[in-house]
Amino acid sequence: MHTELLQWFRKAGRELPWRKDYSPYSVWVAETMLCQTQVGRVIPRYFLWMRRFPDIFALAEAPLGELLRVWEGLGYYARPRYMRKTAEKVVETFQGEFPKDYNILRGLPGIGHYTACAILSIAYNLPYPAIDGNASRVFARLLDLSLPVETRKAQKMVFDFALSLIRKGEARLVNQAIMDLGALICVPRSPRCSFCPVRQYCLAFQRNTQIIRPVRRVRSLKSAEAVVVFCHRDGQVLIRRRPEGGFLGGLWEFPWKENASPDELIPKDFRDRDSVPELIGEIFHTYCQRRIKARIFFIDVNRETFSSEEYHWEEVNRLDEYPFSSFHRKALRLFREFMVQRRVKET
Ligand code: SF4
């Protein structure tokens, strides 16, 4: 299997921007961005990141707002903060060189088991299996695992099997080959088994169980409702910055609340006379095992009487300079469409 896999990878493996120099820094940045995010979304952000923060020294000194702006859209906003902390530590303690030791890497902020294995194997070519989502699916099929892949027992079986495939000096090749096999051939819904270089070794293929592998633990999403209000006056809207350290800390947002009405967000006294919140649409967003349905409102606010330490006014056409979470970006898109239609009606 090892020979067929590597022959296939040498011919068909993906050319990705972080597969040029295999520096620990570029591997770390790419693998951190790729966690839970598709390659197509990561590539432009990776280029942007590398232009702004080309090495660990530049990252260690980067302002948080700029990091969040470059990261925007990738989700999991605690990651860039951890990355900067890790950069500071690597610069201060290891003279800018990532350690080659699994336990020391795990001690750095935000570096988990997968990222440590990815740095050690892909950057340093040391024998550690790096099992991302794609690789985990491939192994669950090769072994025809009937256990959910998230279970400890299944993870151990997968890890041991993956380790057995790595020969001396080939960790980088083998790990990337398995990742690419999962991304290009052993894809989630319809695996392309007739093109698969390792099908003769695949138990799921032999038993025709590919479609039901990997078995997943069923987790139900909780539903929630929310309102977002665009408080507008003279081409400006209210925004606020989320507190540092908390969930989505440091990102900006519009007034919003779960299980609330627009009136609870903006007291009536602060509005222009006769203005009422106008529903401009709905968005759906999923995060942290929750599916949120949000109604988006627009309202004219009397700026002279509205004052808040929490919120401040910003020009609508400057909002792209702020990092927002994907949830608030979706709401902003809807607001912009609404403003275009409003202008058309007024003319
Ligand atoms: S034979 Fe099919 S199920 Fe098995 S590893 Fe290849 S693509 Fe995946």
Full CATH superfamily name of the largest domain = Hypothetical protein, domain 2
**Could you name the CATH topology of the largest domain?**
Endonuclease III, domain 1
Would you identify the CATH architecture of the largest domain?
Answer: Orthogonal Bundle
Strand content: 5-15%
Number of domains: 2
Order of helices and strands: HHHHHHHHHHHHEEEEHEEEH
Rg (CA only): 24 Å
Structural class designation: alpha+beta
Distance between the termini: 68 Å
The total count of strands amounts to: 7
Total helical elements: 14
Helix content: 40-55%
**Sheet with the most strands?**
7 strands, mixed
What's the CATH first level of the largest domain?
Mainly Alpha
What is the global morphology? Answer: globular
Which ligands appear in the coordinates? iron/sulfur cluster
- Poorly predicted ranges (pLDDT <50, ≥5 residues)? none
Arithmetic mean pLDDT: 89
Please give a structural write-up.
By secondary structure, the protein is an alpha+beta fold. It is 43% helix and 14% strand. It has two domains: 2-212, Endonuclease III, domain 1; 222-346, Nucleoside Triphosphate Pyrophosphohydrolase (Alpha-Beta Complex). The chain is built from 14 helices and seven strands. Strands 1, 2, 3, 4, 5, 6 and 7 form a seven-stranded mixed β-sheet that branches. Strand 1 (222-233) and strand 2 (236-241) form a beta hairpin. The termini are far apart. Iron/sulfur cluster binds next to helix 9 and helix 12.
